[in-house]
Amino acid sequence: MTTLTLQPVDFDDPRQTADFLFLLDHYMRGPTGSGEPMGDELRARLPEALRRRPTVLSYLAYAGGDDGQPQPAGLINCVEGFSTFAGKPLLNIHDIVVHEDFRRRGIARALLAHAEAVARERGCCKLTLEVLEGNRGAHRAYLDFGFTAYQLDPAMGAAMFMEKKLG
Q1: Helix (H) or strand (E) run with residue 88 in it
Q2: pLDDT tens digits, residue range 90-115?
Q3: Of 73, 114, 127, 158, which residue is most buried, by most CB within 10 angstroms?
Q4: Is the pLDDT of residue 129 over 90?
């Protein structure tokens, strides 16, 4: 595994903000993102929008580059929610990104472990996430980490993630 430093994103720090936007843009451009670069309007407003939401937690992973300097290698964005069935908070992993130059080095696993530690510190009852059916590598990694399909009653089957766009 690559030597990593994980830290919460400080959106008042221009370098961390730039690293956050760099990694999120990298994710958006890829096949598991939208396939398009981040738009200028989103890039301009996203840091401030996230700064105002205390239930959104973002962490950067820095790895040593070829020159020995820390390079932005990974990002995880989590959103605290609430389970009415458990009466406790939950932590949803909304985005997890590992830059293609740093894949297969244990960075995703380290980000997941960090999110789990944060969730435990906050008294969360579970971690949740969504994964695209065709993203077999991520699906396998999540299963290996202990995630399972969500269901209350096997007769009703697994939960499906759905959306309704509002604008």
Answers
A1: strand 88-98
A2: 999 999 999 999 999 999 999 999 99
A3: 73
A4: yes
